[in-house]
C-alpha cells in the first residue's frame, strides 16, 4: 500500500515534540517528505534531526514541488487560517494545531474551504482521544447520565507561563491562557455535551502575575513584553439551556501546579473526566464509581494514528470543522465580553 506523504509547516516545539515523533510511530503507513519554517536554518536543523529529506522556508514552494497528501500546521495561531486554506486548496488533508484560528471569520473560512476541497480538516485537541473521554462518551451515548445540563472546565497552572515560543504575544496568538490551554478543556466539555449551540457568554480576564518577574515552573518568560491574560473566567449558556463554567490560568495562586479537568452533570449521573470518577444515585444509594482498569495510552499518539487512518481509509475525524467554528465563537465571545464588561450574544 502506498504510504501517506506528510508535510510539516512550522518546525517549533509542538512539531518536534508531538507531530513528527508520532508520525514516525506510524512509519509503516507514513512518510514525512518535507518540513517548512520561515526560518530556513530552523527548517534545516529539523530536517537533519529527524531525517526529513526536504526543507523549505516557503510553504507554497513545498506544496508545489513535493507530492504531499496531508499536512500538519504547527505555526503561531495568527497564521493558522491562511496556511490551512492554502494547503486544503492544494489538495491535502490538514491537522491544524489548536486553537482553530484567531477570528470567527477565519474559522468559518477554513471550514468552508475544507468542504469545497472535499478534504479532511481536523484540529489538535488531543484530550478527545483519551481513553477517559472515550469511556464517558460510551456512558453518555447509552444515556447513563441522562440529560447533561451543566459542566465545569478547568485548565489551571500555578506558575505555568511558557518560557518559550510566542505564547505571551497577543498579536501572534490572539490571547493567553484561555485560547491556549482553556480551549482544550472547553473542547472536551463541548464534545461530551454534543457540541450544543451557544447563546450567551460572559467572560472576564486578568493580567496580574505574568507582567512582573517571578518564579517560572515552565521556564523564564518575557514578563516585560507580556501582552496576554494570565487568568480568564467564563460562563457559557447554550440555546438548549445547558451551561459550562470555565477557568483557565497560566499563573494563579492555587495549590496545584497543573490541573486539567472537566466535570459533567446530568439528571441521571455525572462524572469527573481526568481521572474518571462517576457519580450516580441508584437503588436508594449515592454511588461513586471508578474504573478498576483503564488503558494507558498516549493521547497524542492516538490522535495521529486516527488522523493517518482518516487520510488513508476515509474515516471522518472526530474533531470537525463545524465544531471548530462553534468553539471559536465562544472563545472570541468571551474575549469580547471581557473587553466590554457585558454579556455577549453569540
Count of individual helical segments: 10
- Specify the CATH class of the largest domain: Alpha Beta
Share of residues in strands: 15-25%
User: What's the alpha carbon Rg, rounded to whole Å?
Assistant: 20 Å
Number of strands: 15
| CATH second-level architecture of the largest domain | 2-Layer Sandwich
Counting structural domains, the number is 2
Quaternary class:
single chain
Helical content (DSSP H or I, runs of 4+): 25-40%
**Biggest β-sheet: strands ordered side by side in the sheet:** 14-13-12-11-7-10-9-8-15
Largest sheet: 9 strands, mixed
Which structural class matches the secondary elements? alpha/beta
Written overview of the protein:
The strands form two sheets. A nine-stranded mixed β-sheet has the order 14-13-12-11-7-10-9-8-15, covered by helices on one side. Strands 3-2-1-4-5-6 form a six-stranded parallel β-sheet, with helices on both faces. The protein contains ten helices and 15 strands. The protein has two domains: 4-127 and 301-320, NAD(P)-binding Rossmann-like Domain (Rossmann fold, 3-Layer(aba) Sandwich), CATH 3.40.50.720; 128-295 and 327-345, 2-Layer Sandwich (Dihydrodipicolinate Reductase, domain 2), CATH 3.30.360.10. 47% of the residues are buried. The protein has helices at residues 13-24, 40-50, 59-65, 80-89, 104-117, 131-141, 170-173, 177-192, 299-313, 321-340; strands spanning 4-9, 30-36, 55-56, 70-73, 93-96, 121-123, 148-157, 198-206, 231-238, 243-249, 258-266, 270-272, 277-282, 285-289, 344-345. The mean pLDDT is 97. The radius of gyration is 20 Å and the shape is globular. With 346 residues, it is an alpha/beta fold.
Amino acid at each position: 500500500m502506498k504510504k501517506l506523504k506528510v508535510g510539516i509547516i512550522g518546525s517549533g516545539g509542538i512539531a518536534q515534540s508531538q507531530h513528527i515523533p508520532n508520525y514516525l510511530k506510524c512509519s509503516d503507513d507514513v512518510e514525512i517528505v518535507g518540513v517548512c519554517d520561515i526560518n530556513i536554518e530552523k527548517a534545516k536543523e529539523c530536517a537533519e534531526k529527524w531525517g526529513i529529506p526536504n526543507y523549505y522556508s516557503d510553504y507554497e514552494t513545498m506544496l508545489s514541488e513535493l507530492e504531499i497528501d496531508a499536512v500538519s500546521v504547527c505555526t503561531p495561531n495568527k497564521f493558522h487560517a491562511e496556511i490551512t486554506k492554502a494547503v486544503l486548496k492544494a489538495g491535502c488533508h490538514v491537522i491544524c494545531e489548536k486553537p482553530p484560528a484567531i477570528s470567527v471569520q477565519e474559522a468559518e473560512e477554513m471550514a468552508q474551504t475544507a468542504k469545497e476541497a472535499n478534504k479532511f480538516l481536523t484540529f489538535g485537541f488531543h484530550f478527545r482521544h483519551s481513553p477517559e473521554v472515550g469511556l464517558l462518551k460510551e456512558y453518555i451515548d447509552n444515556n447513563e447520565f441522562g440529560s447533561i445540563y451543566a459542566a465545569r472546565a478547568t485548565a489551571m497552572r500555578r506558575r505555568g507561563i511558557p518560557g518559550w515560543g510566542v505564547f505571551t504575544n497577543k498579536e501572534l496568538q490572539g490571547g493567553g491562557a484561555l485560547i491556549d490551554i482553556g480551549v482544550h478543556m472547553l473542547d472536551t466539555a463541548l464534545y461530551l455535551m454534543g457540541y450544543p449551540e451557544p447563546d450567551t457568554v460572559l467572560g472576564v480576564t486578568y493580567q496580574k502575575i505574568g507582567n512582573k518577574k517571578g518564579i517560572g515552573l515552565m521556564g523564564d518568560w518575557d514578563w516585560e513584553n507580556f501582552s496576554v491574560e494570565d487568568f480568564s473566567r467564563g460562563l457559557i449558556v447554550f440555546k438548549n439551556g445547558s451551561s459550562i463554567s470555565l477557568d483557565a490560568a497560566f499563573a494563579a495562586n492555587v495549590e496545584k501546579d497543573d490541573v486539567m479537568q472537566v466535570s459533567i452533570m446530568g439528571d441521571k449521573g455525572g462524572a469527573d473526566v481526568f481521572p474518571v470518577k462517576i457519580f450516580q444515585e441508584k437503588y436508594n444509594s449515592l454511588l461513586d464509581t471508578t474504573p478498576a482498569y483503564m488503558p494507558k495510552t498516549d493521547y497524542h499518539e492516538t490522535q495521529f494514528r486516527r488522523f493517518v487512518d482518516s487520510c488513508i481509509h476515509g474515516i471522518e475525524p472526530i474533531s470537525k470543522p463545524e465544531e471548530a467554528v462553534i468553539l471559536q465563537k465562544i472563545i472570541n465571545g468571551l474575549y469580547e465580553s471581557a473587553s466590554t464588561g457585558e454579556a455577549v450574544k453569540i
